[in-house]
Amino acid sequence: MARLIPYMPERGGGGGGGAADGGVFISAAGQSASVGNITFTNQNGVSFGMAGSVISASVSTQPGTPFAIGAGTQSVSTGTVSFSNSNNVSFTMNGSSQVVASASFPAETPFGVSAGTQSVSTGTLVFSNSNNFTFGMSGSSRVTASYTAPVVSNALQTVGSATGSGTNTSRFAADDHVHAGIGQFQISGNTSNTSNIVFGSLVLAGGNNVTLSQATAAGAATVTISAGGAAVTLKQLFPYAAAQWAQMVAPVTSFQRFIPFTMPEYGEITEARIPFFMSVSSSSNSSHGGTLSAWAGLYTLNVSSLSLASSGSATVAWTNTSSNSMTLLSGYKMATVPVNATMTAGDYWFAYRFETASVNANWYTISEVGGSQLGSQFNGVIGSNVGQSYPGLGIATHTNGANMRASIHLDSVQGGGSSRQQVVPFWIGKVGAVS
Predict the structure, then answer these.
(1) Measured between alpha carbons, how far is residue 333 from residues 21, 202, 351, 355, 386 in Å?
(2) How far apart are CA 6 and CA 286, in angstroms?
(3) Structural domain containing residue 371
(4) Long-range contacts for 148-151 (Cβ within 8 Å, ≥24 apart)?
C-alpha cells in the first residue's frame, strides 16, 4: 500500500528569503519518490482513475466457493444440497440451521428353518404328518413325534440286480427281512463230488490245465476260462527226419533258405542243427584251412509276411593235411547254431544261410542237403507265377549284412526249381535234454 506523506521543506534563513513551495513525498514497497510524475498502475484486480484532482480506485472480486459436498460417485459445489430419505433414514431441518436424521428398522428375525429345498423365517411353522410319522404338541411349548412301523411280508424275496435298491423310499425294511442272495444253483453233467442244490456264494476254481481270469466293472464281472495242456520243455523236433537226404547246390552267400514247419506243443529250444555235405581232397599236397559260418532263425507269420522271432550264428574252423582222418571232415555233417526261443504250438518257418572261406588252396567243397518232395522241376500253382509248392518254401535274397532278414513277404520267397522246393531235415532242441 502506498502512503502519501506531506513534505514541508525547511524555511531559509536570512537574506530576506520567503517561504518555499510545499511538496509531496510517496513511498511504496521499499521505494519512494518526491519529485516528478507519479503513475498508479492497474494490478491485482485494482484499477485507478482520476477526476479533476481526485484519484479513484476500484476493486473487482470473483465470488468464492465456500465448500463442496460429495457422495458415492457424485458431488455438488453450487446451489442447494438436498438430503433425500432412503434406506429407512429420514431427514428434516431444525431452526433453519440444523439437519436432523432419523432411522427406522424392521423387527429382527431370530432364526429360520429349512427342509429339503424350502425354508421359512416368519409366521408359524407347521409339522406335517408324513411317512408314518405323527406330530403333536405338549404343554404348548414342546413338539412330539411318534412313528408307526408298517406291516411287511417276511416271505423270501429275490434280488433283482446287484445295484437295485428298490423304488419305495418311504419304507424301511423290517429287522427280520431276508433275501435269497444270488439264488440257487447246482452242477450237472460230467461232475465229481456233490451236485446238490445249494444257496449262497458261487466260487469258480481252476483245476488241472484250467486257468480262470476275472475282469470287474460297475456291478458286473467277466470270468474267462482257458483250458489247455500245461507248458512242457520240448526235447527235440526233427520235422523232416523221414526225408531222403541228397546233396543240393553249393551255398549261395546272398540267399537265405526258408522251410515251413509246425510246432506241435509248448516248448523251449536253445540250438538248431543244419545238415550239409563236405568233400575234402586226400591229395598229398592238399594241406589247407577252412571256415564254415552258419546263421539260423525262426520266423512267425504276420498277415502275409514273415517276421524274425529269434536267430543266432556260429563259425567252425579247421585245418587239414593229407595225414588227417577224412571221416572227421568228409561226408554228411551238421552245423550247430545257438537259437534261443520259447515256442507255443503253431506254424513257424525255419531259415538259414551258409558262408565259406579257405586258407591256401581250396581243397574242399560244401553242398547244402535237402530231402526233395518233388521228382522234377516245379513251376508253381496253375494260374500263378509264384513258384511255391507250399507258402514260404524256397529261397530269398539276403539283404541284412551279417544278420538274418528281419521280415519278408511270402511271395518274395522264390520256389521255382527243384532244388528250391526241397525241404531241409534240420533239427531243433534244448542243449542237455538230448545228446
Answers:
(1) 165, 62, 18, 15, 32
(2) 162
(3) 237-429
(4) 149/174
1 versus 220: the higher-pLDDT residue is 220
The size of the chain, in residues, is 435
243: pLDDT confidence band, cut at 50, 70 and 90?
confident
Question: For residue 229, is it within any domain?
Answer: no
Report the C-alpha gap between 34 and 28 in whole angstroms. 12
As a whole number, mean pLDDT of residues 199-214 equals 72
Within a domain: residue 269?
yes
Amino acid present at 322? S
Grid coordinates of 205: 476254481
117 in any annotated domain: no
Residue 306 to residues 142, 256, 353, 396, 417, Cα–Cα distance (Å):
89, 13, 16, 12, 22
Q: Encode 100-132 in three state secondary structure.
A: EEEECCCCCCCCCEEECCEEECCCCCCCCCECC
**Given its phi and psi angles, is residue 322 left (phi above 0), alpha (psi -120 to 50 degrees) or beta?**
alpha
For residue 114, being part of any structural domain is answered with no
How many domains is the chain built from?
A: 1
Q: What is the pLDDT of residues 311-342, one digit of tens each?
A: 999 999 888 776 666 778 888 899 999 999 99
Output the pLDDT for position 255: 87
3-state secondary structure of 89: strand
Burial class (CB in 10 A: 0-12, 13-18, 19+), 77: exposed
Q: Please tell me the distance from the alpha carbon of residue 250 to that of residue 365, in angstroms, as a whole number.
A: 8
Per-residue pLDDT tens digits for 254-274: 789 999 999 988 888 999 999
Contact status, residue 351 vs residue 413, Cβ threshold 8 Å: no
* Residues in Cβ contact with 151 at an 8 Å cutoff, skipping those fewer than 6 apart: none
Alpha carbons 207 and 190: distance in angstroms, whole number: 14
> Does the reported pTM lie above 0.85?
no
